[in-house]
Amino acid sequence: MARSAENLPWIEKYRPETLDDVYGQTEIVETVRKFVKEGRLPHLLFYGPPGTGKTSTIVALAREIYGKNYRNMVLELNASDDRGIDVVRNQIKEFASTRQIFSKGFKLIILDEADSMTNAAQNALRRIIEKYTKNTRFCILANYAHKLTPALLSRCTRFRFQPLPAAAIEKRVTNVLIKEGLKLSPEALKALLKLSKGDMRRALNVLQASKATLDDPSEEVTENTIYECIGAPHPQEIETALESMLKDDWGTAFYTVNKIRTSKGLALIDMIEGMIEVLEDYELKPETRTQLLCKLADVEYAISKGGNDKIQNSAVIGVIKTSFELEG
Ligand SMILES: Nc1ncnc2c1ncn2[C@@H]1O[C@H](COP(=O)(O)OP(=O)(O)OP(=O)(O)O)[C@@H](O)[C@H]1O
Ligand SMILES: [Mg+2]
């Protein structure tokens, strides 16, 4: 038992067992709990960015409602399962229509990653939801509500999971650090909280990866390790790149940026994200800042559309050089 827990990824090892272990989503947890207590749980839709506790919350809720044997009362369908219309219909039908051994009211059907279901499948669901409302409740989980059909949306009570506040991540992380006997320097902790951007899964994964880099487990994890594990450029490197783009001729700037990128294995998009962070602390004229951000956004969009790396890299240098000319 102990051994298998050792091998688990931390995101599983530290998955919330109860609703009280779900951090930073107090309002949602309280509301949902109240629904259950009053015996009027609606169909639920949890949506929001990754790693904010959607799956964890619904599983913890199921545990709270049904106790240890909650699995008998819950049907979980994931994106990786075959979710053609017929499969969904049959599985749900079978599950919903089997007699309940314990009469605990309704059964729960969790449709995880529902935004990756086809429209046809989503449309088929609306009839299914209606048909089985008597003894089942659906909980639909998704990253984007706009990818769900309106008919589906209107049948559920919506809860938006916000990116977790840094304080919530810090609380959880501090807990894990103690349990794992891992030490982080204060700068490393700060970097971890900033770079996780409200995603607890990312925070825990980076922590686990940074522990693996230590030769001696009693060593402290440094800020640099955190940046490396997350694959983000260190602000100092961004400063170096920006300075070169501003002061050096085009060729030297191109060389400098590329050297930083290849030595750290960074994608151009990571550099742009880093630049935007660093530029936040620069004192700039409003028009410089506006132009800079708009143009960097254009480059970011072009990269996401598959734009040529060398051309986009050059564009970044162009953006920096021309925008800062406005500064005079
Ligand atoms: N609010 C939270 N409180 C405590 N731990 C959390 C929270 N959110 C996420 N985690 C941790 O991150 C891991 C992933 O969380 P979870 O699977 O619930 O995210 P999700 O919101 O369903 O993400 P996705 O949209 O990618 O499915 C969990 O195992 C848990 O360890
Ligand atoms: Mg999930």
UniProtKB/TrEMBL annotation:
<keyword id="KW-0539">Nucleus</keyword>
<dbReference type="InterPro" id="IPR008921">
    <property type="entry name" value="DNA_pol3_clamp-load_cplx_C"/>
</dbReference>
<dbReference type="InterPro" id="IPR003959">
    <property type="entry name" value="ATPase_AAA_core"/>
</dbReference>
<dbReference type="GO" id="GO:0003677">
    <property type="term" value="F:DNA binding"/>
</dbReference>
<dbReference type="GO" id="GO:0016887">
    <property type="term" value="F:ATP hydrolysis activity"/>
</dbReference>
<dbReference type="GO" id="GO:0031389">
    <property type="term" value="C:Rad17 RFC-like complex"/>
</dbReference>
<keyword id="KW-0235">DNA replication</keyword>
<dbReference type="InterPro" id="IPR050238">
    <property type="entry name" value="DNA_Rep/Repair_Clamp_Loader"/>
</dbReference>
<keyword id="KW-0067">ATP-binding</keyword>
<dbReference type="GO" id="GO:0006271">
    <property type="term" value="P:DNA strand elongation involved in DNA replication"/>
</dbReference>
<dbReference type="InterPro" id="IPR013748">
    <property type="entry name" value="Rep_factorC_C"/>
</dbReference>
<dbReference type="GO" id="GO:0003689">
    <property type="term" value="F:DNA clamp loader activity"/>
</dbReference>
<dbReference type="GO" id="GO:0006281">
    <property type="term" value="P:DNA repair"/>
</dbReference>
<dbReference type="GO" id="GO:0005663">
    <property type="term" value="C:DNA replication factor C complex"/>
</dbReference>
<protein>
    <recommendedName>
        <fullName>Replication factor C subunit 3</fullName>
    </recommendedName>
</protein>
<comment type="similarity">
    <text>Belongs to the activator 1 small subunits family.</text>
</comment>
<keyword id="KW-0547">Nucleotide-binding</keyword>
<dbReference type="InterPro" id="IPR027417">
    <property type="entry name" value="P-loop_NTPase"/>
</dbReference>
<dbReference type="InterPro" id="IPR003593">
    <property type="entry name" value="AAA+_ATPase"/>
</dbReference>
<dbReference type="GO" id="GO:0031391">
    <property type="term" value="C:Elg1 RFC-like complex"/>
</dbReference>
<dbReference type="Pfam" id="PF00004">
    <property type="entry name" value="AAA"/>
</dbReference>
<dbReference type="GO" id="GO:0031390">
    <property type="term" value="C:Ctf18 RFC-like complex"/>
</dbReference>
<dbReference type="GO" id="GO:0005524">
    <property type="term" value="F:ATP binding"/>
</dbReference>
<dbReference type="Pfam" id="PF25361">
    <property type="entry name" value="AAA_lid_RFC1"/>
</dbReference>
<dbReference type="Pfam" id="PF08542">
    <property type="entry name" value="Rep_fac_C"/>
</dbReference>
<feature type="domain" description="AAA+ ATPase">
    <location>
        <begin position="40"/>
        <end position="167"/>
    </location>
</feature>
